[in-house]
Amino acid sequence: MQFIDLHCDTITTAYDKNAGMEENNLHIDFKRLTAFNAPVQFFAVWLNDKCLEKPFENTLKYIEFFRSELNKTKYPIRFARSYTDIIYNRNKRVTSALISIEGGEAIENDLDNIYRLQNQGARIFTLTWNRKNNLGAGAMTDSDEGLTDFGKATVKELNKADIFVDVSHLNEKGFYDVCSITDKPIMASHSNAYELCPFPRNLKDDQIKEIAKLGGVIGFNLCADFIRADGKPNHEDVIRQIEHILNVGGEDILGLGCDYDGITNTPKDLEDIGSSVFFFNLIEKYLGEDIATKIFYSNLDIFLQNNL
């Protein structure tokens, strides 16, 4: 089975727990990934509060840890920077591992750091986490302010650098600021539908439509609190969320952004990367094989082919 997933937090979680990435008890490790047919996994670098004193330095620290884990593993997984790399790895039946940056603090008020991170392999840039930073405000804040001037400049520079602008975690005003500035497709790498679960991190229908209008994509998040308001979703709740996003944004908009190792509460039977076959079969049961294949693979594959 093939899949492409836009977001996990395994780098930070493995490093902070001294767990390693080859084999561990987290949601994702290299061994379990390579059980599939050349999957594509984006690994986020997220900074906790302790890392914010030296955010760029700490971001590089996490990336170096990730590279060292890739270099020493016995499993068939390789770093990728481009769609050409993904195709090469796929032909060799090797997992492709790519980097994303979660939180604009990482560039430390210096647009040149965007290119330094690009050189390190960063291909997705999430403008904020839940907190407020010097680019804008996260969805979990009370702020109704949009992007700062530096945030707007960052979006323009990310476009120039061919790094995807990721609006997951961004508040609503900031979201629409991005949409008015960007000249490239955007993504919400790990967000669900607000209409069915009014959690601040989820996307309202007009936001889903706007992402579709810009040719962007959404990664479906398996955080239980983003699927059902009481945090106790069943399989039907998962399918309702998926179906709603497809109905609003079209069949080509949705992929995976499971948020593994960044969440603690998942729906039953979808607890880690080993649940992927079950997840595919669940979607296939309710929505058909074509839709399951689109969500797991082909929607994001076409998007990356056209834009990465």
Structural summary, described in words:
The longest helix has 19 residues, at 289-307. Strand 7 (187-188), helix 8 and strand 8 (217-220) form a beta-alpha-beta unit. The mean pLDDT is 98. The chain has eleven helices and nine strands. The protein has helices at residues 10-16, 30-33, 55-72, 83-91, 112-119, 149-160, 172-181, 205-213, 235-249, 276-287, 289-307, and strands at residues 4-5, 40-46, 77-79, 95-102, 122-126, 164-166, 187-188, 217-220, 254-256. It starts with a strand and ends with a helix.
Average pLDDT rating:
98
Helical run tally: 11
Q: Number of DSSP strands?
A: 9
Secondary-structure-based class equals: alpha/beta
| Sheet having the most strands | 6 strands, parallel
The radius of gyration computed from the alpha-carbon positions, rounded to a whole number of angstroms, is 18 Å
Taking the alpha carbons of the first and last residues, their distance comes to: 22 Å
Approximate shape: globular
Strand content: 5-15%
Low-confidence stretches: none
Element-level helix/strand string: EHHEHEHEHEHEHEHEHEHH
Which features would summarize this protein structure in a list?
single chain; alpha/beta; six-stranded parallel β-sheet; three-stranded parallel β-sheet
Structural topology:
Blueprint lengths: L3 E2 L4 H7 L13 H4 L6 E7 L8 H18 L4 E3 L3 H9 L3 E8 L9 H8 L2 E5 L22 H12 L3 E3 L5 H10 L5 E2 L16 H9 L3 E4 L14 H15 L4 E3 L19 H12 L1 H19 L1
Parallel strand pairs: 1-2, 2-4, 3-4, 4-5, 5-6, 7-8, 8-9
Helix pairs in contact: 10-11
